[in-house]
Known about the structure:
single chain, alpha/beta, Rossmann fold, 5-stranded parallel β-sheet, 5 strands, 11% strand
Amino acid sequence: MTAPSPNRTYQQLRAHLAYLKLDAAADALAGVLDGADDASHVEVLETLLGIEAEATATRRRESRRRLAGLPAEHRLDDFDTDAQPSVAPELLRDLATLRWVDDGGNVLFIGPPGVGKTMLAIGLGHAAIDGGHRVYYTTAADLVARCHKAAIEGRWANTMRFFAAPQLLIIDELGYLPLTGEAASALFQVVNRRYAAGQSIVLTTNRGISQWGEIFDDPVVAAAMLDRLMHRSIIVPIDGDSYRMRTHRNHTHDLRKAITLGD
C-alpha cells in the first residue's frame, strides 16, 4: 500500500481543521510545520491548539465587549488619581482584581457631575469583560424606559431576565432625573432580582445616600433599594473639581499665556 504524500497529508490535515471550524489553527498550520524542526507530534499539536484557543478567547472577549454596550474605551489606568485624590490608587487596584464580582458585590460611585464616576464605571466594565464576565451598560433613564415599554408590550418577564443575565450590570447617572413611582418600582425590581441571584451592580449617582428619598419620591422604595445595594457594597465617594472644568481652566490659562507671550 502506497503511503500518502506529505503534500496530500498536509492538505487533508488542513481540510480537517477547516471542517472543524478551527480556522486559526488551519491558517497557522503551514508556519507551525515549517518551524517545527525536531518538535514532536504532541508539541506541534499543542502549538496549533494553543493558537486556536487564543483566537477563540479573543473572539469571545470581543463579542462580550460588543454586547455590553459600553459607550467609551475608558480603562481604570486612564483615571487620574492625582487630579482626584479622593480615589486612592490602592482602591482601584483592588477593584481591578474583580473579587467583588466573584462575591456578588456592588460598587457605588457617588459624587457631583464631572468627577469621573462614569469613567470609572466603564473602566470596571472593560476589566470585567477582560476577566471573562458578561457585562451590560445602561443609564438609569434608559433602564426604566425599557422596563416601561416592556410592561406595555407584555414583555416584562423577558426584560427582567435580560437585566438579570449579565454578571455585571452598570447603571449610570442615577439621580439626574427624578423617578416616578412606576420607574422607581422597575429599578427596584431589577436591583432586587440581581440581589437575589448574587449578581453585581456598578452604580453611579450624583446624590448622596441621604438624598435617595428625593430621587424616588418614596422613602420606602429608597430604603429597600439601598438595603440591597449596600449589603455587599464598596462605596466610593468622589469629590474635587470636574474634569471638564479643570480642562477648561487649563485651556484658558494656556490661551492667556500665549496671548501674553505674543504681546
